[in-house]
Amino acid sequence: MIDRRAFIQGTALAVLVAPLIAEARPATAGRVPRIGVLGDVSPIPWTVKTSAAEIECRWADGRRDRLLELAAELVSLGVDVIVTAGAGPTRAAKSVTRAIPIVFVAGGDPVGEGLVASVARPGGNVTGLSVPSEAEIAGQRLRLLAQAVTSVGRVAVLTNPDSPSSEHVLRHLRGTAGQAVEVRAFEARSVEEVERAFAAIVVEEMDGLLVLPDGLFALHARRLVDLAAESRLPAVYGARSFTEAGGLMALYGDTAEVIRRATAMVARILAGSGPATLPVELLTHLELTVNAGTARALGLALPRSLLTRADTVIGA
Predict the structure, then answer these.
(1) How far is CA 222 from CA 51, 57, 99, 198, in A?
(2) Which of 92, 96, 146, 264 has its CA 20 to 30 A from that of 60?
(3) What is the mean pLDDT of residues 256-276?
C-alpha cells in the first residue's frame, strides 16, 4: 500500500525545490545540484530530475534499522545537500557525513536531541526547521477529542512500541489528561496486531481513540479508519490522509509551509551559506482537518468553536 499523502508531500518537495534551486548558484558552474531526501515514512525509493536539480529520495518504509544504510547510500551518490524528516533520519545522516550539509525537519528540541549545538548557531553541518514535538501535538489532539466528545472519559492510544518517542508521548498524554480522563495504550507492530488492538479497544469500551503517527499506521491508513468506523470510535489522527480516508479529525504540521521553508534553506546552502551559521527556524502552526460527514455518521454534534478552528472541513 502507498500512503498517498506521503507521496504527495515528497513530490511537492521536488516541485517546490526546483525553482528555488534555479535561483541559487551551484558550487560548480554548469553542474546540476543533487539533493538527497531521507525519511522513515514513505512508499518507495524514487528520483526526480528537473533542469534545476536532481532529487534522490530514500525512505526506510517504517524500518528504522535501514536509516544508516540509506543515509550512506545518499552520501555515496555524492549529493550536495541531504534533507531529513525527523530526528532519527537526521542522526543517521549526521553519523555518516560531517561534510555534506544536512537540513532537517524535526519535532521537539533540536539541541536536546543532539542535532545542533544551538538554535542560533547550529555549528557543524546540520541546520533545519523545528516543529512542535509529537508529545505537544498529541496533547492538543487529546483536547480536540474532548471537545468533540463531551462525555469522553477513557481514551485509547494506538502506538507502535518500537517508536523511540512512544513512551515519552504516553507520559505527556497521561499528564495532560490528569484525573478526568483515563489514557490507555494499545500497542501494534504489524497490521495483524492493529486488528487485535482494535478488538481489545472495543472489549475495554473506550470512548475515543488517538492514533500516534507511525510509518506502519500511515501505510495502512484506510484500514485503521475502517476499523475505527466499524467500532464507532471517534478518532484523531496525525495526518490529513486519515481524514481523506474517512477519519474524524487530524492535527498535523503545516506541510506546505514546512516544504517552502525547508526548500528555501536548501537554496541558501546551495548558494553558498554554511549550515553552521544558519539559525534553526521554528514553526508553530498546526493544521486541523475535520471530516464533518464522519462526525454525522458517529452522531457527533461538533461545537462551532472546533469547526471554526479547522483549516479544512471535509463533507460540510
Answers:
(1) 36, 24, 41, 14
(2) 264
(3) 89
Q: Looking at residue 52, what is its pLDDT?
A: 65
Angle of the 221-230 helix axis to the 191-203 helix axis, nearest 10: 20
Average pLDDT of the residues in 240-245: 94
pLDDT band per the 50, 70, 90 thresholds, residue 152: confident
From CA 36, how far away is CA 57, in angstroms rounded?
6
Please count the helices (runs of H) and the strands (runs of E) in the chain.
Answer: 12, 14
Beta bridge partners, 32, equal: none
Which residues of 117-226 form beta strands (DSSP E)? 126-131, 154-159, 182-187, 208-211
The one-letter code for the residue type at 112 is G
Q: How confident is the model at residue 6 (pLDDT cuts 50, 70, 90)?
A: very low
**Phi-psi category of 29—alpha, beta or left, where left has phi over 0 and alpha has psi -120 to 50?**
beta
- What is the per-residue pLDDT for 28? 54
Q: Cell for 83?
A: 534533507
Max Cα–Cα distance, the chain, nearest Å: 65
What average pLDDT does range 134-138 have in this prediction?
89
Nearest to 52 by CA among 80, 28, 20: 20
DSSP symbol at 291: E
Strand partners, 131: 107
Q: Which residues pair with 245 in a beta bridge?
A: none
CA torsion 191→197→199→204, rounded to 10°? -170
Angle at Cα 39 formed by Cα 211 and Cα 265, nearest 5°? 115
Locus of grid cell 460540510: 316
Q: Which cell numbers in the block locate residue 97? A: 557525513
* C-alpha cell belonging to residue 98: 560531517
Look up the pTM and report it. Answer: 0.70
Residue 60 near residue 219, CB atoms below 8 Å: no
pLDDT of residue 8: 40
Cα pseudo-dihedral 206, 208, 209, 210, rounded to 10: -130
The helix/strand/coil state of 315 is coil
